[in-house]
Structure to design on (227 residues):
């Protein structure tokens, strides 16, 4: 089965705390792509990162970092020194190359309190 | 630099009515797709297209039709609206046969009474 699980439905932290959003995926394909998208309160969907299955290097972009571990089928997202503007719903997603279908997780609603 | 244009932004229908959600992109992307977003369920793929004249079903295709006569346009048709189709709908396009990042439209809030 092809599946993406975001077990954390809602997270609330105080500003400046670090927070990690978990993403666990299932796929039988050896070639696949993982994504994170952000949906702020305004409702639009914003691309954050794409990672292919052959690249397990972690990535850092400013306060954002991603940890990809094939051994545990996880692609976790960490925000360092969180800010109120980080409040949003975050979606993890999987595309497997044998079919052009994207599967989204159910999302994690992140609230950053001032 | 319009990107993905989705209309209308809001729509209220009565059960049994039909309507078409419009989606157009100006990035020459071959891949286009439609999603519905329901609380607690993330985004679910309804239909997608990998090029003009080619469409395929996603995870939740029942009650919806699509066609792709041009690269730019990918309309979604509700043939006979049902309350279960009340949702937020997003259109998206992508490069690389859907393996690239998705560019989303601004969404349509649809209510079926």
């Amino acid at each position: 089965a092809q599946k993406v699980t975001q077990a954390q439905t809602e997270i609330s932290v105080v500003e400046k705390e670090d927070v990690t959003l978990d993403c666990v995926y299932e796929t039988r394909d050896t070639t696949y792509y993982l994504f994170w998208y952000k949906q702020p309160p305004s409702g639009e969907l914003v691309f954050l990162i794409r990672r292919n299955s052959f690249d397990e290097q972690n990535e850092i972009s400013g306060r954002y970092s991603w940890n990809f571990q094939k051994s545990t089928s996880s692609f976790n997202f960490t925000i360092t020194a969180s800010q109120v503007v980080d409040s949003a719903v975050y979606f993890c997603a999987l595309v497997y190359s044998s079919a052009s279908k994207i599967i989204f997780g159910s999302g994690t609603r992140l609230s950053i309190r001032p | 630099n319009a990107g993905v244009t989705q209309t209308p932004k809001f729509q209220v229908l009565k059960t049994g009515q039909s309507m078409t959600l419009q989606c157009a992109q100006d990035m020459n992307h071959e891949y286009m797709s439609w999603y519905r977003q329901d609380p607690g369920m993330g985004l679910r793929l309804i239909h997608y297209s990998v090029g003009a004249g080619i469409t395929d079903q996603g995870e939740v295709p029942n009650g919806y039709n699509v066609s792709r006569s041009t690269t730019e346009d990918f309309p979604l048709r509700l043939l006979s609206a049902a309350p279960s189709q009340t949702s937020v709908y997003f259109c998206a396009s992508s490069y690389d046969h859907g393996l690239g990042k998705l560019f989303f439209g601004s969404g349509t809030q649809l209510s079926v009474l």
